[in-house]
Specification:
Number of helices: 5
Number of domains: 2
Distance between the termini: 45 Å
InterPro entries: Znf_TTF
Order of helices and strands: EEHEEEEHHHH
Organism: Homalodisca liturata
Protein name: TTF-type domain-containing protein
Length: 215
């Protein structure tokens, strides 16, 4: 199947398939926990995640049980203090409760599209995530200043913009996902209407003839 390639302003690219069957796995993805995201993220999954995260807004991490090697993860790590003292929220940094680890959203979504050598992919983008709390003070700044992170971050924001405007080369895929969602919503509403109608009339949720003749 033809897979058009989307070019981003910073040179980052990713192919976008128009096969609607790739969207089947999106229904079970936990938006707030990257540790539960698929190991291999399809184009449909990527569009779904970016779109839903955009609608979700800021994700507040649950840091009640983050103890590792005697260290506790704190909310301060999700904020960057600029040289002028301004505090900026690290929107790219997300905590996974299931893995008790940290992930970089854009790198998790886009690092693997750049065909990088596995050893060069940041721990914040790997399946297990980043777990070395004692090295946070050096690894977080190191990661956010890396070229790969900047490229993935730009790709993330470009896709966000494209999805919010429903424009760009991925519009066909967006429309397919929207149509599929509308279809299943319609099916659900129809089922509910039938159940309510039967309940109102006191009718059973089965046929009147239970004797089936297959002869």
């Amino acid at each position: 199947m033809f897979q058009p390639e989307q070019k981003y302003n910073n040179g980052t690219s990713t192919s976008l398939t128009t096969d609607p069957t790739h969207g089947e796995s999106t229904k079970s993805i936990d938006l707030k926990d990257p540790g539960k995201w698929p190991n291999t993220i399809s184009d449909a999954d990527r569009c779904f995640l970016v779109s839903r995260l955009l609608n979700e807004g800021k994700i507040e991490p649950d840091l009640n049980n983050t103890l590792r090697d005697g260290r506790q993860l704190t909310k301060e790590w999700f904020t960057k203090i600029m040289p002028n003292g301004l505090k900026v929220h690290r929107t790219w940094l997300v905590y996974s409760k299931s893995n008790n680890s940290l992930y970089c959203i854009p790198c998790k979504l886009f690092s693997h599209t750049e065909h990088q050598h596995p050893h060069k992919i940041s721990a914040l983008a790997k399946d297990e995530g980043f777990t070395q709390w004692k090295k946070l003070s050096e690894r977080i700044p190191e990661h956010e200043n890396s070229l790969n992170h900047k490229q993935c971050f730009c790709a993330w924001k470009n896709l966000e913009s494209s999805l919010s405007k429903r424009s760009g080369i991925d519009k066909e895929l967006q429309d397919m996902i929207a149509l599929e969602e509308a279809h299943w919503k319609g099916v659900l509403y129809a089922i509910i209407d039938v159940i309510l109608h039967l309940a109102k009339d006191g009718s059973p949720l089965r046929g009147s003839n239970e004797n089936l003749d297959f002869s």
